[in-house]
């Protein structure tokens, strides 16, 4: 009966397809005015519509849901609505005969997926054998944020890692904790989850959606530091598909490197407001993620940030630097010094730059002095009154002294060497602001700063504003005397270019220069003074880690107050606290509609990736979308970048030769020699490629340089793996990646070889 009903259903589909094809041809032949028609009807397309129109699967539902939800939002007048209609299909995802054959005997697992199964529509599209393979898949989702949550939900709904024999598995990792600001777009989390691990909470939530899901939640960072412990070679080799849900390029490039090394498919995606993209990375078929470079992020020039702001974004970024430099980075140094003074000084001396040593030691001295009596220098724990005094001095330095110094160096009538006014737009001449305990803006800053200093010294918070105001009003502020200083006015300097962390806030103007001998003498005196400090172990120094979502911790209060005062200095229109929080907290605009749409597209590519070895490159689609316009662009992934011979290479400053010709990042030279030494590896390469090996390296470490006699004497006969473990301080890897620099024996031309994979046996 079952077989008969299935045959009848197939016959009905065929009949419906024939009927639709007939009607479509009649419409096309009629060619009536106003009717959309084509020159030739695609019979296969019409047949697919007839056969699968009733099938509803999670990826397509997510895509359509995201698009439609954004169209509903557009009724408010925000963004451009969709004009006409949108047609989108993914018929290329249907299995080819080769893919069906690779999955095994047709119908073998049909009884496991009945007509009442939650996967019935997916089975109707791809077959029971495919669903069985999807259930056995091992997928690794990196990140459990907005995209990560939706991708985990999609995997659970599709049945990835949900096989009846529990052979499949989904692994997710994320170091972050759930914040209040996550709740409006990460729907696996609720208010009661705030403060808990994202990965663990997300895993528990999706398991309630599909109890068959085999999922492992980790809280470890995917990086070099976990290669020997958590994300080992065995871990990566056990995975079938890697899905990125990351928010920074460095992490994406690292995961991409792992996928290239272990030959794993990677699904890469990202969103930014209404914009989103999907990239499919397949071993030996496509480019890897790192082959295509993203444009660099825009940054505010350092001198604009320090001296010449002209937008509220500049003052907020400056205030955020303030927070990091004064309340976190500066406090971390005395903490390290207190733990082991001698070791800290030895490490500091190793850096070699006297000005850096002097600057850090002076900051340590200043914070240590907060734990000493001003007269006797005996141990005396700081009081909250001292924190208020320190906050007032900080205010005066930032908003009066430094501004006065800038105006002293560049008066309002100052002219450049070209004869133009120095203070010409976009530069805004500032006005110093002296501390006034009765001024609300001044008081807001001192309240926040004094409580953050109190946190630094392990003291309880004081929220009585009137008490802080009374203490601040009694602080005697020393008179400021300007100095003759050189101030950088070059807008080409970048904010993260030079100087210690927080320098753009704590010391925006350079110190008076000293001779090397004088600086060395000052540094020696500071070291001696600090080493003689009594009761150092009793002192408490607690760095403040910036947290934007706690409105009671004074973090956003400090940044907003500092930004507002800085804006008042430069007559820049101020903004509200919420805008300060968005910019200072670096809250990336993410909306549920874009996330759902991109998740749907990633999930469609994942369904294809299960059988990627039996598919053609044109079956896969990279996507670039913008729901605001609206715009959807799909393209085939680019093939791998090939290394070819060149008559002139700008890096080598001469010709280069590729061996083998046209290799890509996916190609490797595998060396399976037990206990392989440097000499054996060199001989192996020389024999196989007829080259002379000049340099062998691992990452940034040079293992062997044939031009250095000491390397030939001490390293030539040593084991490659032992040498790597000694140089890089890592161990436990079953294979290591070695790069080579070689030249042809015949004519000395530089030769490029693929990465060498040395097996550790």
UniProtKB/TrEMBL annotation:
Active site residues per record: 303 (glycyl thioester intermediate)
Classification via PANTHER family: UBIQUITIN-ACTIVATING ENZYME E1, UBIQUITIN-ACTIVATING ENZYME E1 C-TERMINAL DOMAIN-CONTAINING PROTEIN
Gene Ontology terms: cellular component: cytoplasm; nucleus
Annotated Ubiquitin-activating enzyme E1 C-terminal domain residues: 620-756
Keyword ATP-binding included in the entry's annotation: yes
Family according to the record: Belongs to the ubiquitin-activating E1 family.
Protein name (database record): Ubiquitin-activating enzyme E1 family protein
UniProt keyword terms in alphabetical order: ATP-binding, Ligase, Nucleotide-binding, Ubl conjugation pathway
Native source species: Toxoplasma gondii COUG
Pathways involved: Protein modification; protein ubiquitination
One Pfam family this sequence matches: UBA_E1_SCCH
Gene3D superfamilies: NAD(P)-binding Rossmann-like Domain, Ubiquitin-activating enzyme E1, inactive adenylation domain, subdomain 2, Ubiquitin-activating enzyme E1, SCCH domain, Ubiquitin-activating enzyme E1, UFD domain
GO BP: any one term: DNA damage response
Region (Disordered): 487-509
GO MF, any single term: ATP binding
């Amino acid at each position: 009966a079952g077989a008969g009903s299935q045959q009848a259903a197939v016959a009905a589909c065929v009949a419906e397809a024939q009927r639709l094809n007939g009607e479509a041809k009649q419409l096309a032949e009629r060619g009536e005015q106003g009717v959309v028609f084509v020159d030739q009807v695609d019979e296969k397309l019409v047949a697919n519509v007839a056969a699968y129109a009733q099938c509803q699967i999670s990826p397509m539902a997510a895509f359509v849901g995201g698009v439609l939800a954004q169209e509903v939002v557009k009724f408010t007048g925000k963004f451009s609505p969709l004009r006409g209609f949108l047609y989108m299909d993914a018929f290329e995802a249907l299995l080819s005969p080769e893919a069906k054959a690779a999955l095994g005997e047709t119908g073998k697992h049909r009884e496991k997926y009945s007509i009442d199964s939650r996967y019935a529509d997916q089975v109707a599209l791809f077959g029971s054998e495919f669903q069985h393979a999807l259930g056995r898949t091992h997928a690794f989702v990196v990140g459990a944020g907005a995209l990560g949550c939706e991708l985990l939900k999609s995997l659970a709904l599709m049945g990835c890692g949900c096989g009846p024999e529990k052979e499949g598995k989904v692994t997710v990792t994320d170091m972050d904790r759930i914040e209040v600001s996550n709740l409006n777009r990460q729907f696996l989390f609720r208010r009661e989850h705030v403060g808990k691990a994202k990965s663990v909470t997300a895993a528990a939530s999706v398991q309630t959606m599909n109890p068959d899901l085999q999922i492992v939640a980790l809280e470890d960072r995917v990086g070099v530091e976990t290669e020997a412990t958590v994300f080992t070679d065995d871990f990566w080799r056990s995975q079938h598909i890697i899905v990125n849900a990351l928010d920074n390029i460095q992490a994406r490039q690292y995961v991409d490197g792992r996928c290239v090394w272990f030959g794993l498919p990677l699904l890469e995606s990202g969103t930014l407001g209404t914009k989103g993209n999907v990239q499919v990375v397949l071993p030996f078929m496509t480019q890897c993620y790192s082959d295509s470079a993203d444009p660099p992020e825009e940054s505010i020039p350092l001198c604009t940030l320090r001296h010449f702001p002209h937008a509220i974004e500049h003052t907020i970024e400056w205030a955020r630097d303030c927070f990091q430099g004064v309340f976190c980075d500066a406090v971390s140094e005395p903490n390290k010094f207190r733990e082991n003074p001698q070791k800290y000084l030895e490490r500091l001396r190793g850096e070699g730059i006297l000005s850096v040593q002097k600057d850090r030691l002076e900051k340590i001295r200043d914070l240590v002095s907060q734990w000493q009596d001003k007269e006797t220098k005996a141990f005396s724990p700081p009081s909250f009154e001292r924190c208020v005094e320190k906050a007032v001095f900080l205010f005066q330095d930032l908003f009066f002294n430094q501004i006065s110094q800038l105006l002293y160096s560049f008066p309002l009538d100052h002219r450049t060497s070209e004869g133009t006014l120095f203070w010409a737009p976009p530069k805004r001449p500032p006005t110093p602001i002296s501390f006034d305990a009765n001024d609300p803006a001044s008081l807001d800053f001192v309240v926040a700063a004094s409580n953050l200093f109190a946190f630094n010294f392990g003291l309880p918070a004081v929220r009585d504003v009137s008490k802080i105001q009374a203490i601040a009003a009694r602080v005697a502020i020393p008179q400021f005397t300007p100095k003759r200083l050189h101030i950088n006015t070059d807008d080409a300097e970048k904010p993260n270019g030079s100087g210690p962390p927080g320098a753009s806030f704590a010391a925006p103007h350079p110190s008076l220069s000293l001779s090397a001998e004088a600086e060395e003498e000052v540094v020696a005196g500071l070291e001696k003074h600090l080493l003689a400090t009594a009761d150092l172990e009793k002192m408490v120094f607690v760095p403040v880690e910036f947290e934007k979502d706690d409105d009671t911790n004074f973090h956003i209060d400090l940044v907003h107050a500092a930004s507002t005062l800085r804006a008042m200095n430069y007559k820049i229109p101020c903004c509200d606290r919420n805008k300060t929080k968005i910019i200072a907290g670096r809250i990336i605009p993410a909306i549920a509609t874009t996330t759902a749409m991109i998740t749907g597209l990633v999930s469609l590519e994942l369904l294809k990736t299960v059988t990627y070895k039996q598919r053609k490159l044109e079956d896969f689609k990279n996507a670039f979308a913008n729901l605001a316009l609206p715009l959807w662009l799909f393209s085939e992934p680019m093939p791998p970048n090939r290394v070819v011979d060149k008559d002139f290479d700008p890096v080598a400053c001469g010709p280069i030769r590729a061996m083998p010709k046209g290799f890509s990042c996916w190609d490797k030279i595998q060396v399976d020699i037990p206990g392989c030494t440097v000499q054996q590896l060199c001989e192996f390469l020389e024999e196989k490629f007829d080259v002379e090996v000049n340099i062998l390296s691992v990452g940034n470490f040079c293992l062997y340089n044939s031009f250095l006699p000491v390397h030939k004497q001490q390293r030539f006969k040593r084991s490659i793996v032992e040498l790597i473990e000694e140089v890089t301080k890592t161990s436990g890897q079953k294979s290591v990646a070695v790069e080579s620099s070689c030249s042809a024996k015949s004519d000395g031309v530089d030769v490029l070889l693929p990465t060498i994979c040395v097996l550790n046996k």
